[in-house]
Amino acid sequence: MAIEVRIPTILRNYTDGAKAVEGGGATLDQLFADLESRHPGLRGRLVDEKGLRRFVNVYLNDEDVRFLGGLETKVSDGDTVTVLPAVAGG
Amino acid sequence: MRMLTIERAIVDQIVAHARADHPDEACGVVAGPAGSDRPSRFVPMANAERSPTFYRFDSMEQFKVWREMDDRDEEPVVIYHSHTATEAYPSRTDVSYASEPNAHYVLVSTRADDETEFRSYRIVDGEVAEEEVRIVESYETDSVD
User: Fold this and answer.
1) From the list A10, A59, A64, which residue is nearest B99 (CB)?
2) Quick one: which of A13, B56, B122, B138 has the most CB atoms within 10 Å?
3) What is the predicted ipTM?
4) What are the structural domains, with CATH classification, of chain A?
5) What's the CA gap between A35 and A21, in Å, rounded?
6) Residue B32 contacts by C-beta under 8 Å, 6 or more apart in sequence?
């Protein structure tokens, strides 16, 4: 078992076109670090020095991680993490 | 050259949504079967910012709608929002946050009471390309180009 991470179209250039990839870790932060080892560049599109990027939405199962613990949100095998770019503008 | 072909009834729904939310910006998507380039299911979204100068999909509503599209094998063929005081042209923020390279970005302007601008763009890697909008009565009776 692992954690499934669903990747939006715009970031699939980091995953060889894969819609979903798998990774491990105890927190979202660790999961993203694990993904970075196989998909270099991906982590930088999700987080910056202040934490989760403002215009990226990350969901753990059915919940926005901003309402959980952000990057410190606990994750475990069998969870699904979904990444969606925010749809926004002026 | 790319163009947006869209049914009049859907254009009318987008314009009605933009008018209803004026002076705040309105936003939403029109889903269509993946790969079809045919916007067919109108999905108005809440503007979480409730602002005349900014819009952002509510994150939980977006999650629900995106999952629904996934389940139906659809994609966001059109992503629309309104400008309420300026022309229907992508702003700098629209370009910097554009994240669906395959979508038609529709801009509607409600700045004039008696006329609604309706224009469509591709926004890829920070480049804006306006495209022709062809409004048809029905996709079914539309002749094949």
Assistant:
1) A10
2) B56
3) 0.90
4) 3-85 (3.10.20.30)
5) 8
6) B38, B39, B40, B41, B74, B75, B77, B78
